[in-house]
Amino acid sequence: MDMGNQHPSIKRLHEIQKEVKEIEQQVVVFSGLSTDRDYKKLERSLTKQLFEIDSVDTEGKGDIQQARKRAAQETERLLKELEQNANHPRRLEIEAIFKEAQSLVEREITPFYKGGNCISDEFEEGIQDIVLRLTQVKTGGKVSLRKARYRTLTKVCAVQEIIESCVKQQLSLPLSNDAHPSVSKINSVMCDVNKARGTLIALLMGVSSNDTCRHLSCVLTGLIADLDALDVCGRTEIRNYRKEVVEEINKLQKYLDLEEEANSTHAYDLAQNQSILKIEEIRKKMKEVNSLLLKAENASDLYLGSKAELQGLIARLDEVSPGKNPCIREARRRAVIEVQTLITYIDLKEALEKRQMYSEQTAAEHQSHKAVWTVLGNLSQIQQEVISFDGNRTDKNYMRLEELLTKQLLALDAVDPQGDERCKAARKQAVKLAQNILYYLDMKTDEWEY
Q: What is the pTM of this model?
Protein backbone atom coordinates (compact mmCIF):
# COMPACT_ATOMS: atom_id res chain seq x y z
CA MET A 1 0.00 0.00 0.00
CA ASP A 2 1.22 3.50 -0.84
CA MET A 3 2.36 5.16 2.39
CA GLY A 4 0.91 8.43 1.12
CA ASN A 5 -2.60 6.99 1.21
CA GLN A 6 -2.31 5.44 4.67
CA HIS A 7 -4.11 6.71 7.73
CA PRO A 8 -1.89 9.00 9.84
CA SER A 9 -2.20 6.63 12.83
CA ILE A 10 -0.97 3.67 10.74
CA LYS A 11 1.92 5.81 9.49
CA ARG A 12 2.83 6.70 13.06
CA LEU A 13 2.73 3.03 14.12
CA HIS A 14 5.06 2.12 11.25
CA GLU A 15 7.49 4.82 12.36
CA ILE A 16 7.44 3.49 15.92
CA GLN A 17 7.91 -0.10 14.74
CA LYS A 18 10.91 0.99 12.70
CA GLU A 19 12.48 2.51 15.83
CA VAL A 20 11.66 -0.64 17.82
CA LYS A 21 13.33 -2.75 15.12
CA GLU A 22 16.53 -0.76 15.55
CA ILE A 23 16.41 -1.34 19.32
CA GLU A 24 15.82 -5.08 18.73
CA GLN A 25 19.36 -5.58 17.39
CA GLN A 26 20.76 -4.24 20.67
CA VAL A 27 18.43 -6.42 22.74
CA VAL A 28 19.41 -9.65 20.96
CA VAL A 29 23.12 -9.16 21.67
CA PHE A 30 22.74 -7.62 25.13
CA SER A 31 25.06 -9.60 27.39
CA GLY A 32 24.95 -7.58 30.62
CA LEU A 33 22.90 -7.67 33.80
CA SER A 34 19.78 -5.85 34.89
CA THR A 35 21.91 -3.50 37.00
CA ASP A 36 23.94 -2.32 33.99
CA ARG A 37 23.53 1.15 32.55
CA ASP A 38 22.92 -0.23 29.04
CA TYR A 39 20.11 -2.43 30.36
CA LYS A 40 18.33 0.54 31.91
CA LYS A 41 18.85 2.56 28.73
CA LEU A 42 17.28 -0.15 26.55
CA GLU A 43 14.47 -0.67 29.04
CA ARG A 44 13.67 3.07 29.02
CA SER A 45 13.76 3.19 25.21
CA LEU A 46 11.33 0.28 24.85
CA THR A 47 9.03 1.61 27.58
CA LYS A 48 8.98 4.97 25.82
CA GLN A 49 7.94 3.23 22.58
CA LEU A 50 5.12 1.50 24.44
CA PHE A 51 3.84 4.90 25.63
CA GLU A 52 4.12 6.20 22.06
CA ILE A 53 2.11 3.21 20.78
CA ASP A 54 -0.49 3.68 23.48
CA SER A 55 -0.88 7.35 22.54
CA VAL A 56 -1.79 6.53 18.92
CA ASP A 57 -5.47 7.35 18.35
CA THR A 58 -7.30 4.38 16.76
CA GLU A 59 -10.50 6.39 16.21
CA GLY A 60 -12.37 3.18 16.97
CA LYS A 61 -11.20 1.58 13.71
CA GLY A 62 -10.54 -2.15 13.87
CA ASP A 63 -7.56 -2.21 11.51
CA ILE A 64 -5.76 0.52 13.48
CA GLN A 65 -6.58 -1.21 16.76
CA GLN A 66 -5.09 -4.47 15.47
CA ALA A 67 -1.97 -2.68 14.17
CA ARG A 68 -1.50 -0.95 17.52
CA LYS A 69 -1.97 -4.26 19.36
CA ARG A 70 0.67 -5.99 17.20
CA ALA A 71 3.13 -3.14 17.71
CA ALA A 72 2.59 -3.25 21.48
CA GLN A 73 3.03 -7.05 21.57
CA GLU A 74 6.29 -6.88 19.67
CA THR A 75 7.65 -4.20 22.00
CA GLU A 76 6.57 -6.16 25.08
CA ARG A 77 8.25 -9.25 23.63
CA LEU A 78 11.54 -7.35 23.37
CA LEU A 79 11.19 -6.09 26.95
CA LYS A 80 10.70 -9.70 28.06
CA GLU A 81 13.67 -10.90 25.99
CA LEU A 82 15.85 -8.16 27.48
CA GLU A 83 14.88 -9.26 30.99
CA GLN A 84 15.49 -12.93 30.14
CA ASN A 85 18.93 -12.17 28.70
CA ALA A 86 19.95 -10.33 31.85
CA ASN A 87 18.54 -12.94 34.25
CA HIS A 88 19.20 -16.15 32.34
CA PRO A 89 20.53 -18.85 34.73
CA ARG A 90 23.65 -19.29 32.58
CA ARG A 91 24.25 -15.55 32.57
CA LEU A 92 24.05 -15.52 36.35
CA GLU A 93 26.42 -18.52 36.42
CA ILE A 94 28.94 -16.55 34.35
CA GLU A 95 28.61 -13.59 36.72
CA ALA A 96 29.09 -15.80 39.79
CA ILE A 97 32.30 -17.26 38.33
CA PHE A 98 33.52 -13.76 37.45
CA LYS A 99 32.92 -12.61 41.03
CA GLU A 100 35.14 -15.47 42.19
CA ALA A 101 37.81 -14.19 39.83
CA GLN A 102 37.40 -10.67 41.25
CA SER A 103 37.86 -11.97 44.79
CA LEU A 104 40.94 -13.89 43.72
CA VAL A 105 42.44 -10.79 42.10
CA GLU A 106 41.73 -8.58 45.11
CA ARG A 107 43.24 -11.14 47.44
CA GLU A 108 46.30 -12.16 45.40
CA ILE A 109 47.19 -9.52 42.82
CA THR A 110 46.72 -6.26 44.69
CA PRO A 111 49.28 -7.18 47.39
CA PHE A 112 51.68 -8.32 44.67
CA TYR A 113 51.75 -4.88 43.07
CA LYS A 114 52.19 -3.26 46.47
CA GLY A 115 55.53 -4.93 46.99
CA GLY A 116 54.83 -8.68 47.12
CA ASN A 117 57.56 -10.92 45.75
CA CYS A 118 55.64 -13.51 43.77
CA ILE A 119 52.30 -14.83 42.60
CA SER A 120 51.14 -17.78 44.69
CA ASP A 121 50.39 -21.22 43.28
CA GLU A 122 46.88 -20.73 44.65
CA PHE A 123 46.32 -17.82 42.26
CA GLU A 124 47.68 -19.63 39.19
CA GLU A 125 45.58 -22.73 39.92
CA GLY A 126 42.54 -20.64 40.84
CA ILE A 127 42.59 -18.52 37.68
CA GLN A 128 43.09 -21.62 35.51
CA ASP A 129 40.11 -23.30 37.17
CA ILE A 130 37.99 -20.19 36.52
CA VAL A 131 38.98 -20.15 32.83
CA LEU A 132 38.05 -23.84 32.53
CA ARG A 133 34.68 -23.36 34.22
CA LEU A 134 33.83 -20.36 32.04
CA THR A 135 34.79 -22.34 28.94
CA GLN A 136 32.37 -25.09 29.94
CA VAL A 137 29.37 -22.82 30.55
CA LYS A 138 26.65 -24.00 28.15
CA THR A 139 25.16 -21.17 26.07
CA GLY A 140 22.78 -23.22 23.94
CA GLY A 141 23.82 -21.13 20.94
CA LYS A 142 22.20 -18.02 22.44
CA VAL A 143 24.02 -14.95 21.14
CA SER A 144 23.77 -12.93 24.37
CA LEU A 145 25.22 -15.80 26.42
CA ARG A 146 28.04 -16.47 23.94
CA LYS A 147 28.92 -12.80 24.10
CA ALA A 148 28.80 -12.70 27.92
CA ARG A 149 30.98 -15.79 28.18
CA TYR A 150 33.49 -14.44 25.67
CA ARG A 151 33.71 -11.01 27.30
CA THR A 152 34.31 -12.55 30.71
CA LEU A 153 36.87 -15.03 29.36
CA THR A 154 38.66 -12.22 27.53
CA LYS A 155 39.16 -10.29 30.75
CA VAL A 156 40.21 -13.26 32.89
CA CYS A 157 42.59 -14.61 30.22
CA ALA A 158 44.10 -11.12 29.82
CA VAL A 159 44.86 -10.99 33.56
CA GLN A 160 46.37 -14.47 33.34
CA GLU A 161 48.52 -13.38 30.41
CA ILE A 162 49.69 -10.15 32.07
CA ILE A 163 50.76 -12.03 35.20
CA GLU A 164 52.52 -14.79 33.27
CA SER A 165 54.35 -12.22 31.15
CA CYS A 166 55.44 -10.29 34.23
CA VAL A 167 56.64 -13.37 36.13
CA LYS A 168 58.33 -15.22 33.27
CA GLN A 169 59.78 -12.40 31.17
CA GLN A 170 61.96 -10.29 33.42
CA LEU A 171 63.88 -7.51 31.70
CA SER A 172 67.58 -8.10 31.16
CA LEU A 173 68.12 -4.77 32.95
CA PRO A 174 67.52 -2.38 34.91
CA LEU A 175 70.90 -0.79 34.84
CA SER A 176 72.48 0.92 37.78
CA ASN A 177 71.55 4.57 38.23
CA ASP A 178 75.27 5.32 38.14
CA ALA A 179 75.60 4.10 34.54
CA HIS A 180 74.06 7.28 33.07
CA PRO A 181 71.62 10.03 34.21
CA SER A 182 68.98 8.70 31.74
CA VAL A 183 69.00 5.32 33.45
CA SER A 184 67.55 6.79 36.64
CA LYS A 185 64.60 8.17 34.65
CA ILE A 186 64.04 4.84 32.84
CA ASN A 187 64.11 2.98 36.16
CA SER A 188 61.54 5.44 37.50
CA VAL A 189 59.33 4.87 34.44
CA MET A 190 59.64 1.09 34.92
CA CYS A 191 58.31 1.48 38.48
CA ASP A 192 55.35 3.41 37.06
CA VAL A 193 54.81 0.61 34.50
CA ASN A 194 54.61 -1.94 37.31
CA LYS A 195 51.98 0.20 39.05
CA ALA A 196 50.12 0.51 35.72
CA ARG A 197 49.97 -3.30 35.48
CA GLY A 198 48.19 -3.45 38.80
CA THR A 199 45.82 -0.66 37.72
CA LEU A 200 45.11 -2.41 34.41
CA ILE A 201 44.30 -5.70 36.13
CA ALA A 202 42.00 -3.91 38.56
CA LEU A 203 40.22 -2.18 35.66
CA LEU A 204 39.83 -5.38 33.64
CA MET A 205 38.36 -7.18 36.63
CA GLY A 206 36.15 -4.27 37.71
CA VAL A 207 37.69 -3.99 41.18
CA SER A 208 38.86 -0.38 40.80
CA SER A 209 36.56 2.59 41.22
CA ASN A 210 39.28 5.22 41.16
CA ASP A 211 40.64 4.79 37.61
CA THR A 212 39.37 4.62 34.04
CA CYS A 213 40.78 3.05 30.88
CA ARG A 214 41.03 6.50 29.31
CA HIS A 215 43.09 7.85 32.22
CA LEU A 216 45.39 4.80 32.17
CA SER A 217 45.85 5.17 28.41
CA CYS A 218 46.91 8.80 28.93
CA VAL A 219 49.35 7.74 31.67
CA LEU A 220 50.94 5.07 29.44
CA THR A 221 51.17 7.47 26.50
CA GLY A 222 52.84 10.01 28.78
CA LEU A 223 55.40 7.42 29.91
CA ILE A 224 56.31 6.66 26.30
CA ALA A 225 56.68 10.40 25.61
CA ASP A 226 59.01 10.71 28.63
CA LEU A 227 61.13 7.83 27.34
CA ASP A 228 61.26 9.25 23.79
CA ALA A 229 62.54 12.56 25.16
CA LEU A 230 65.54 10.96 26.88
CA ASP A 231 69.03 11.46 25.52
CA VAL A 232 70.79 8.08 25.62
CA CYS A 233 74.00 9.48 24.05
CA GLY A 234 74.26 6.64 21.54
CA ARG A 235 74.83 4.05 24.27
CA THR A 236 73.53 0.70 23.02
CA GLU A 237 72.80 -0.87 26.41
CA ILE A 238 70.74 2.15 27.52
CA ARG A 239 68.91 2.33 24.19
CA ASN A 240 68.04 -1.38 24.47
CA TYR A 241 66.83 -0.88 28.03
CA ARG A 242 64.58 1.96 26.92
CA LYS A 243 63.31 -0.14 24.03
CA GLU A 244 62.37 -3.00 26.38
CA VAL A 245 60.44 -0.66 28.68
CA VAL A 246 58.59 0.86 25.68
CA GLU A 247 57.63 -2.65 24.53
CA GLU A 248 56.27 -3.41 28.01
CA ILE A 249 54.12 -0.27 27.84
CA ASN A 250 52.83 -1.17 24.35
CA LYS A 251 51.83 -4.63 25.62
CA LEU A 252 49.73 -3.03 28.34
CA GLN A 253 48.10 -0.59 25.91
CA LYS A 254 46.75 -3.38 23.71
CA TYR A 255 44.69 -4.71 26.63
CA LEU A 256 42.80 -1.43 26.82
CA ASP A 257 41.08 -2.31 23.52
CA LEU A 258 39.72 -5.63 24.81
CA GLU A 259 36.25 -4.32 25.60
CA GLU A 260 35.78 -3.05 22.06
CA GLU A 261 37.03 -6.35 20.61
CA ALA A 262 34.72 -8.38 22.87
CA ASN A 263 31.75 -6.44 21.49
CA SER A 264 32.52 -7.38 17.88
CA THR A 265 30.45 -10.26 16.49
CA HIS A 266 33.38 -12.05 14.85
CA ALA A 267 35.06 -12.40 18.24
CA TYR A 268 32.31 -14.07 20.28
CA ASP A 269 30.43 -15.89 17.48
CA LEU A 270 32.86 -18.68 16.65
CA ALA A 271 30.73 -20.41 14.02
CA GLN A 272 32.79 -18.79 11.25
CA ASN A 273 36.14 -18.91 13.05
CA GLN A 274 38.78 -20.50 10.81
CA SER A 275 40.11 -22.77 13.55
CA ILE A 276 36.60 -23.96 14.41
CA LEU A 277 35.87 -24.59 10.72
CA LYS A 278 39.01 -26.73 10.49
CA ILE A 279 38.01 -28.68 13.60
CA GLU A 280 34.50 -29.26 12.21
CA GLU A 281 35.96 -30.40 8.88
CA ILE A 282 38.14 -32.95 10.71
CA ARG A 283 35.18 -34.11 12.82
CA LYS A 284 33.14 -34.61 9.65
CA LYS A 285 35.87 -36.85 8.24
CA MET A 286 36.06 -38.72 11.56
CA LYS A 287 32.30 -39.38 11.43
CA GLU A 288 32.66 -40.81 7.91
CA VAL A 289 35.32 -43.26 9.15
CA ASN A 290 33.11 -44.05 12.15
CA SER A 291 30.13 -44.79 9.90
CA LEU A 292 32.16 -47.15 7.70
CA LEU A 293 33.50 -49.04 10.71
CA LEU A 294 30.11 -49.53 12.35
CA LYS A 295 28.26 -50.49 9.17
CA ALA A 296 30.83 -52.80 7.56
CA GLU A 297 30.00 -56.52 7.69
CA ASN A 298 33.67 -57.43 8.00
CA ALA A 299 35.13 -54.40 9.77
CA SER A 300 38.48 -56.12 10.37
CA ASP A 301 39.39 -55.46 6.73
CA LEU A 302 39.06 -51.73 7.43
CA TYR A 303 41.02 -51.57 10.70
CA LEU A 304 44.48 -50.85 9.29
CA GLY A 305 43.42 -48.15 6.83
CA SER A 306 40.95 -46.56 9.24
CA LYS A 307 43.48 -46.40 12.05
CA ALA A 308 46.07 -44.74 9.82
CA GLU A 309 43.45 -42.20 8.67
CA LEU A 310 42.39 -41.44 12.25
CA GLN A 311 45.99 -40.94 13.34
CA GLY A 312 46.32 -38.49 10.45
CA LEU A 313 43.29 -36.60 11.80
CA ILE A 314 44.97 -36.36 15.22
CA ALA A 315 48.00 -34.81 13.52
CA ARG A 316 45.75 -32.30 11.72
CA LEU A 317 44.05 -31.36 15.00
CA ASP A 318 47.47 -30.75 16.58
CA GLU A 319 48.11 -28.21 13.82
CA VAL A 320 44.92 -26.24 14.56
CA SER A 321 45.79 -23.04 16.39
CA PRO A 322 43.35 -22.09 19.18
CA GLY A 323 45.05 -18.71 19.57
CA LYS A 324 44.21 -17.31 22.99
CA ASN A 325 40.61 -18.49 22.94
CA PRO A 326 39.99 -21.26 25.50
CA CYS A 327 36.69 -22.18 23.82
CA ILE A 328 38.54 -23.12 20.62
CA ARG A 329 41.08 -25.02 22.74
CA GLU A 330 38.21 -26.94 24.37
CA ALA A 331 36.62 -27.68 20.98
CA ARG A 332 39.95 -29.08 19.76
CA ARG A 333 40.41 -31.16 22.94
CA ARG A 334 36.97 -32.72 22.51
CA ALA A 335 37.63 -33.51 18.86
CA VAL A 336 40.90 -35.22 19.83
CA ILE A 337 39.03 -37.36 22.39
CA GLU A 338 36.47 -38.35 19.75
CA VAL A 339 39.17 -39.50 17.34
CA GLN A 340 41.20 -41.23 20.05
CA THR A 341 38.07 -43.11 21.16
CA LEU A 342 37.70 -44.59 17.67
CA ILE A 343 41.38 -45.57 17.62
CA THR A 344 40.97 -47.30 21.00
CA TYR A 345 37.87 -49.07 19.67
CA ILE A 346 39.87 -50.45 16.72
CA ASP A 347 42.80 -51.46 18.94
CA LEU A 348 40.51 -53.45 21.27
CA LYS A 349 38.69 -55.12 18.37
CA GLU A 350 42.01 -56.18 16.88
CA ALA A 351 43.24 -57.52 20.22
CA LEU A 352 40.05 -59.56 20.77
CA GLU A 353 40.18 -61.05 17.26
CA LYS A 354 43.84 -61.92 17.68
CA ARG A 355 43.04 -63.60 20.98
CA GLN A 356 40.38 -65.75 19.30
CA MET A 357 42.90 -66.87 16.68
CA TYR A 358 45.20 -68.20 19.42
CA SER A 359 42.53 -69.72 21.65
CA GLU A 360 44.60 -72.84 22.32
CA GLN A 361 47.41 -70.76 23.81
CA THR A 362 45.04 -68.74 25.99
CA ALA A 363 43.37 -71.84 27.40
CA ALA A 364 46.13 -72.27 29.98
CA GLU A 365 45.92 -68.65 31.21
CA HIS A 366 45.30 -67.75 34.83
CA GLN A 367 41.53 -67.62 35.58
CA SER A 368 41.73 -64.04 36.77
CA HIS A 369 43.42 -63.05 33.50
CA LYS A 370 40.61 -64.72 31.54
CA ALA A 371 38.08 -62.83 33.66
CA VAL A 372 39.67 -59.52 32.67
CA TRP A 373 39.48 -60.44 28.98
CA THR A 374 35.82 -61.39 29.39
CA VAL A 375 35.16 -57.86 30.71
CA LEU A 376 37.18 -56.39 27.83
CA GLY A 377 34.95 -58.27 25.39
CA ASN A 378 31.89 -56.76 27.08
CA LEU A 379 33.47 -53.30 27.04
CA SER A 380 34.11 -53.58 23.29
CA GLN A 381 30.40 -54.17 22.65
CA ILE A 382 29.38 -51.37 25.01
CA GLN A 383 31.91 -48.99 23.44
CA GLN A 384 30.40 -49.61 20.02
CA GLU A 385 26.99 -48.65 21.38
CA VAL A 386 28.42 -45.55 23.09
CA ILE A 387 30.09 -44.42 19.85
CA SER A 388 26.75 -44.83 18.03
CA PHE A 389 24.70 -43.18 20.80
CA ASP A 390 23.15 -39.86 19.76
CA GLY A 391 20.75 -39.04 22.59
CA ASN A 392 20.83 -37.10 25.83
CA ARG A 393 21.08 -37.91 29.52
CA THR A 394 17.33 -38.30 29.94
CA ASP A 395 17.20 -41.16 27.43
CA LYS A 396 16.66 -44.65 28.83
CA ASN A 397 19.47 -45.91 26.59
CA TYR A 398 21.90 -43.47 28.22
CA MET A 399 21.03 -44.77 31.67
CA ARG A 400 21.30 -48.36 30.43
CA LEU A 401 24.79 -47.74 28.99
CA GLU A 402 25.90 -45.98 32.15
CA GLU A 403 24.66 -48.91 34.24
CA LEU A 404 26.41 -51.45 31.98
CA LEU A 405 29.72 -49.61 32.30
CA THR A 406 29.34 -49.39 36.08
CA LYS A 407 28.73 -53.17 36.19
CA GLN A 408 31.92 -53.81 34.21
CA LEU A 409 33.89 -51.68 36.67
CA LEU A 410 32.41 -53.67 39.55
CA ALA A 411 33.29 -56.91 37.75
CA LEU A 412 36.90 -55.75 37.40
CA ASP A 413 36.98 -54.76 41.03
CA ALA A 414 35.95 -58.33 41.92
CA VAL A 415 38.83 -59.88 39.96
CA ASP A 416 41.52 -61.23 42.30
CA PRO A 417 44.92 -61.24 40.51
CA GLN A 418 46.31 -63.52 43.21
CA GLY A 419 49.72 -61.93 42.84
CA ASP A 420 49.82 -62.33 39.04
CA GLU A 421 51.55 -59.17 37.76
CA ARG A 422 50.29 -59.69 34.21
CA CYS A 423 46.73 -59.84 35.49
CA LYS A 424 47.23 -56.74 37.63
CA ALA A 425 48.44 -54.75 34.60
CA ALA A 426 45.58 -56.05 32.42
CA ARG A 427 42.97 -55.20 35.07
CA LYS A 428 44.42 -51.70 35.49
CA GLN A 429 44.21 -51.08 31.72
CA ALA A 430 40.65 -52.43 31.59
CA VAL A 431 39.56 -50.14 34.44
CA LYS A 432 41.08 -47.16 32.64
CA LEU A 433 39.30 -48.15 29.41
CA ALA A 434 35.92 -48.45 31.18
CA GLN A 435 36.41 -45.05 32.83
CA ASN A 436 37.38 -43.48 29.47
CA ILE A 437 34.26 -44.90 27.80
CA LEU A 438 32.12 -43.57 30.65
CA TYR A 439 33.79 -40.14 30.34
CA TYR A 440 33.23 -40.16 26.57
CA LEU A 441 29.54 -40.97 27.09
CA ASP A 442 29.25 -38.04 29.52
CA MET A 443 31.11 -35.74 27.14
CA LYS A 444 28.80 -36.63 24.25
CA THR A 445 25.75 -35.71 26.32
CA ASP A 446 26.87 -32.64 28.29
CA GLU A 447 25.39 -30.25 25.67
CA TRP A 448 28.59 -28.23 25.42
CA GLU A 449 29.07 -25.99 22.38
CA TYR A 450 31.59 -23.34 21.44
A: 0.70
